[in-house]
Write a structure and sequence with these properties.
The chain has 391 residues and is an alpha/beta fold. It contains 13 helices and 13 strands. It starts with a helix and ends in a 7-residue tail after the last helix.
Length: 391
Amino acid sequence: IVFCRSLNKMNFITRLSALCLRKSKMPQRYRSSRRPAVPLGSRILTDPSKVFEHNMWDHMQWSQEEEQRAKDKAAENSLVKVQLEDQEILPEKKREQLKTEEKSSESIKKNSTSSFPHQDFPGMFEEGKEYWKNNYGEDSSSVQGQIYNKKQAKSITDSPQGKNCREQLGKLESFPGSGAAYRILEVGCGAGNSVFPILKVLCNTPGTFLYCCDFASGAVELVKLHSSYNSAWCFAFVHDVCDDALPYPFPDEILDVILLVFVLSAIHPDRMQRVVNRLAKLLKPGGMLLFRDYGRYDTSQLRFKKGHCLSENFYVRGDGTRVYFFTKDEVWNMFNLAGLTEVQNLVDRRLQVNRKKKVKMQRVWIQSKFQKPLLLSLSNPEETTKRHPYG
């Protein structure tokens, strides 16, 4: 039974990750009304003369010459750095104003959800309880994402480590999604391009709940105003992942999946590790973080002109937003330092073409899955430390 439950969970994560990567901010594959869409990863260019027959080709390998040209181009556009005094994207007063507005918004949300009446979420708590009953037994409950029956709970509360167990159980009723058995967080949800396809799946999966957050309050409001938004299955909130002092509207170690898609690249490299560390704490043991972002020497990196480079492989766009370009080694190091273990970490290389202009563009993304070790591994820190798989 335990094996089947774990298998079902992994299948759900696999389907969810595929869905999110299809609906993510990556360029959409060309779809003809006369033919079915080709699954990602299956369109291989075998005849170079047919390169302009489709908009995208999968699994493209670079020649040594192509890779060297990309390195030279990146080195060239990095020669002139943005002056330190000009590297503050937002004026200090404006940034402080935004933070004040966000904290005020968070305070209002906390006050309004402190007693979270069940009638605001019709059916959610009943379906969640039914899920627990069917899968873990009638006497089961959850503390910080862990499952215990009443006998286990008594032994835990009697132990020094679990002296606050009852208080934690009480707190579970005071946050959005507390009655759910399976919880997902999308970081950097924007206007909801991934949120609503995910919700379409979740609405048919009792006991599941989606959290989604973004730095921009306007984007979060758009999500809430969407006709498909339903507070029974979803909670959208404003959050700055770079602000370690800003709490999440739920406890640590309760999430089964975190989606981090084209978000980390917009954060200053000096802050990335702290952001990943904090997100790792939100995952329950066995939880999965799904990551996709820009890879080193992607076409968008090579297009930057001189004077847009902030630091090595870190640039500012014309609209003031920033972007970093990763290697899979860097990604592995960050998530490994956060205590997560690799399930998948690969470079996704594709050839995107403009058939009208006859232009070829080498796209590079990093796509990864990292998992929080189970409690058994966490009890022995040495077991979670792995040798770097890439040399």
